Each structure stands twice: as structure tokens, then as C-alpha cells.
Amino acid sequence: MTTGKDVAAEIAFLARELKTPVITETFTSLGDQAREAGWSHEEYLAAVLGRQVASRTANGTRMRISAAHFPQVKTMQDFVFDHIPATTRDVVAHLATGTFIAKRENVVLLGPPGTGKTHLAIALGIKAAEASYPVLFDSATGWIHRLAQAHAKGGLERELRRLNRYRLLIIDEVGYLPLDAAAAALFFQLVASRYETGSIIVTSNLPFSRWGETLGDDVVAAATIDRLVHHAHVIGLDGDSYRTRAHRDTINQQTK
């Protein structure tokens, strides 16, 4: 005669074989809850499997966020939209759904330092990770360093193919430091390799009209911009920087 303990042991064994630890942890307590609430067998099974799937999804999201190498975690909930026009807010809300990644579109965030470009780029990257898209973040100089190392070892094309496995690359701080001709060529190759194959988010403190300054050549800048914006959402962020506003608010509070 099979006892309740035998059945529990069998379920625990099967859960271990299936590598579903949450089922092991929850099937007994959910079974008690099911009996008390009069659940059907199907409702109980759905509850147990739902716990396992939710845990696996959360773990997957954490792994993708960790693998993205964000410098810090920034979310949409933390972003201050007060100085952004309502139409721009609507665009950002649409981008947060991740549909631009499915369409292999790009996002370009332009504006002076401190207006939230990096915050917004990271927040969109986290939304992408939550939607199961692999993401990778770095500054413009970081990307150039990575590609220069690959080029020096004769593996640039292989590295670009590897990066194409990521559905979203985030290139932060374009324009903060000027690039020499070799670095500008590497940057162009990175953008060109993603053209209509994967999404990029770029942040820059410079308008497109000044990208020739940071890329060192107007022709290279034009070719880069052409590929970047062909399928892109370009968002301008303006106004005081977060740091300036915070400093002003502190002074106002102290003088009241």
C-alpha cells in the first residue's frame, strides 16, 4: 500500500531528476493549501508548476542583468520625467516594452551631461533583460578597447560575430573623448555589424552635427550616423542636469 510519505518521497525524487528545486520546496505546502481550499488536481498542478516557472524566470533575469555588466542598476520607476515633454514620455514608455529590439531598431539618446541619458539606457536594458533578451553594456571607450584587443589578435570579425549574439548592445558616452582614426574605424565597424541584425542604444552629449569632432572625420561620422539612425528612435534630453537640480534644491531647502 502506497502511503502519503511514499508519494512525497517519489515527487521529491522526480523533482530532483527534473532539476526543479522549487517544486521540491513547495509541493507539500501547496498540497496542504490545495486540500484546505478544495482545489482540483489541475489547479494544484498549475500552482506548483507556476512557482517553478516564476522562479526560473526571475533567476534568468538576474543572470542576464549580471551578464550585461551595467555599472549600476537604474530603473524606469526611478527616472524623473518632470523635464521631459509628454510626447517623449510616450515614446520612452513604448521603448520600455522592448518591441524595438524585436524589430532590430536602435535608440539614440542625445543631450548635455546629467540629463539622465545613461539612467534611461540602463533602465531600457534592464527591461530588455526582463523580456529575456541578452544585453551587453559598456562605454564608448570600453567598446573601442574591446575591439582593439580583438583586432590586435586577428579576431575582430570573430568578436563582432560573437557580439551579434546579444540582441541589445548599449554604447554609453559617445563624444566625451575624441577618437583617433583607428578607434573611429572600429566604432564604425561595430555599428555597421549591427545594421538590421541587432539593436543598439547609444548615448551622446553631442548633437549629430558635431560627431565629426569625436570621430575625427566627417565622412566616417556621416556613414556611422546613417547606419545608426536608419531604423532608430532619436530622443533629445535637455534641461538642467540631475546634479545641478539636486544642488539647487538643497540650497533652496537650506535658505527656507
TrEMBL record:
InterPro entries: AAA+_ATPase, DNAC/IstB-like, IstB, IstB_ATP-bd, P-loop_NTPase. It holds the Pfam family IstB_IS21. One of its GO terms (molecular function) is ATP binding. Gene3D superfamilies: P-loop containing nucleotide triphosphate hydrolases. The keyword Transcription does not apply. Residues 103-236 form the AAA+ ATPase domain. Keywords: ATP-binding, Nucleotide-binding. CDD domains: AAA. Signal peptide: none annotated. One of its GO terms (biological process) is DNA replication. SMART domains: AAA. NCBIfam families: IS21_help_AAA (NF038214), PRK06526.1 (NF005098). Belongs to the IS21/IS1162 putative ATP-binding protein family. This is AAA+ ATPase domain-containing protein. It comes from Tessaracoccus flavescens.
